[in-house]
Amino acid sequence: MKEMREKFWVQLFIIYTRFLLGGGFVFASIIKIKGKRFTTESQEDAEFGTVGHFFETMYQTGEYWQFLGWAQLISGFLLMTQKFSKLGAVINLAIILNVFVITISMDFNNTHIITFFMLLANLGLILWHWGELRILFNLPYVPPTPNLEESKPVWIYTGFTLFLFTAGYRIYTDFYDPIFWFLSCFAIVIVSFLWRILLSNNK
């Protein structure tokens, strides 16, 4: 594990995994915080036990619906900052595990496949920080590898940029274009990667 942590491309994969998971949660959180439904139409007449009925019930709780949004927003933000990603991974694990269990408990079509890979990715982040997190289980603390790529300012700035863009876009409009959002975020991470390589070559 120590050798893997020192490899640049492995570190970069972890950073981008945080961006992807965190960005997805921030993207999904704003609509809840705004106190609005996932869908544009009411599901009040949805059959009992269906997905539509499930989401309508959560929406009708009001404060709980918004609480879920804030929990997703905070965990997503912490992941994207890189600096507080360990805390974000721990909080996010509880949320995504809950989401995964929901998707396998009800007829969400193939959504459980997506949530399974999100859960797997989050478990990977927990494993990445296991040396530091194991103290929670009364196991000896293992200090983090020094000078990890995630500590570079470029990735911290990128995380804040992605967070502000995603949150701002979802605050601005309820009728989002997921392709536009994804391509915009992809462009941001590509620019940050080129910036990082340029800085490395100039040393």
Question: Layout of helices and strands, plus pairs?
Answer:
Elements: H1 2-5, H2 8-33, H3 51-60, H4 63-81, H5 85-105, H6 111-128, H7 130-133, H8 153-172, H9 178-201
Helix pairs in contact: 2-4, 2-6, 2-8, 4-5, 4-8, 5-6, 8-9
Describe this structure in words.
- Helix 2 packs parallel to helix 8.
- 72% of the residues lie in helices and 0% in strands.
- It is an all-alpha fold and 203 residues long.
- The protein is built from 9 helices and no strands.
- 23% of the residues are buried.
DSSP helical segment count: 9
Please state the structural category. Answer: mainly alpha
Average pLDDT works out at 88
Rg is 18 Å
**Largest beta-sheet characterization:** none
Q: Into which percentage range does the β-strand content fall?
A: under 5%
What ranges have pLDDT less than 50 throughout 5 or more consecutive residues? none
Spell the H/E element sequence. HHHHHHHHH
The percentage helix is over 70%
First-to-last CA distance: 28 Å
Coarse shape: globular
Number of DSSP E strands: 0
Observed structural traits:
mainly alpha, 203 residues, single chain
Short précis:
The chain is mostly helical and 203 residues long. It has helices at 2-5, 8-33, 51-60, 63-81, 85-105, 111-128, 130-133, 153-172, 178-201. The protein is 72% helix and 0% strand.
